[in-house]
From TrEMBL:
The chain crosses the membrane at residues 20-41, 61-82, 127-151, 179-198. Belongs to the HupC/HyaC/HydC family. It comes from Helicobacter ibis. Gene3D superfamilies: Transmembrane di-heme cytochromes, Chain C (1.20.950.20). It is a multi-pass membrane protein. InterPro entries: Cyt_b561_bac/Ni-Hgenase (IPR011577), Di-haem_cyt_TM (IPR016174), Hydrogenase_cytochrome (IPR051542), Ni-dep_Hydgase_cyt-B (IPR000516). Residues 11-215 form the Cytochrome b561 bacterial/Ni-hydrogenase domain. NCBIfam families: CytB-hydogenase. It comes from the Bacteria. This is Ni/Fe-hydrogenase, b-type cytochrome subunit. Coiled coil: none annotated. Its main location: membrane. Keywords: Cell membrane, Electron transport, Heme, Iron, Membrane, Metal-binding, Transmembrane, Transmembrane helix, Transport. It is found in: Cell membrane.
Length: 226
């Protein structure tokens, strides 16, 4: 019997755009952040004149994309929590609190069972992971703003200084803030290849899902036979 599939609209266009912009920001922020911590290359300047401002360029891109990431993340949280387009994503919480779905999903990942039917866009493991990633973004953004305010004392830096000072004390000092910022960067470095692998694996094992969905917005489910 021929299997029939139906298209299910899972991610809105805005959600998909924000996903890829955020991914690009994280990659470039990681590269520029490591350069700021350890300038491993310098411009070839034979004249001795201070014209090769590579460090300043790296720092500028780090700041620009850092604020882009903060803005996108705030907007993404708003979309997820309040918009109709993301209602299918919010329904994933119904599966998170269902131990039976957890059991079936883990069986699927261990290759001893099929993938269960989900009520939302994400399975429980994905949902918990993505919430963790958002908490990582919040953590690295807060520590980044504390470091920013210590360098730029006017404008935005001056405006947030009273709040960042309190947070700095809470974290145990500026050295700890920098260390936490660095550790959270490594958390992203560990997450990204795992995320790409799992999305590719999911798209291969369950066609119509994974990477396909975050590009087209649609996943394909088998139609129930009556």
């Amino acid at each position: 019997m021929e299997k029939k599939y139906k298209a299910v609209y899972e991610f809105s266009k805005l959600t998909r755009i924000l996903h890829w912009v955020r991914a690009i920001c994280i990659v470039i922020l990681t590269i520029t952040g490591f350069y700021i911590a350890y300038p491993f290359i310098a411009p070839d300047n034979h004249t001795g004149e201070p014209t090769g401002f590579l460090y300043a360029l790296m720092r500028s891109w780090h700041l620009i994309l850092g604020f882009v990431l903060i803005a996108i993340s705030i907007f993404r949280i708003y979309l997820f929590a309040f918009t109709k387009e993301c209602s299918f994503e919010r329904r994933s919480f119904l599966d998170v609190v269902n131990p039976i779905v957890w059991f079936k999903v883990l069986k699927a990942y261990l290759l001893v069972g099929g993938h269960p039917h989900l009520k939302g866009a994400y399975n429980p493991l994905q949902m918990v992971t993505y919430i963790g990633v958002m908490l990582l973004i919040i953590g690295i953004s807060v520590t980044g703003l504390i470091l920013y305010a210590h360098v730029y004392h006017n404008g935005l830096g001056g405006a947030i200084m009273p709040f960042t000072r309190e947070l700095e004390v809470l974290f145990g000092g500026l050295a700890n803030v920098r260390f936490i910022h660095h550790i959270l960067t490594w958390a992203f470095i560990i997450f990204l290849p795992i995320h790409i692998y799992m999305a590719s694996w999911n798209a291969t094992r369950y066609p119509g899902a994974g990477i396909d969905t975050i590009i087209s917005g649609y996943k394909f489910e088998k139609e129930e036979q009556h």
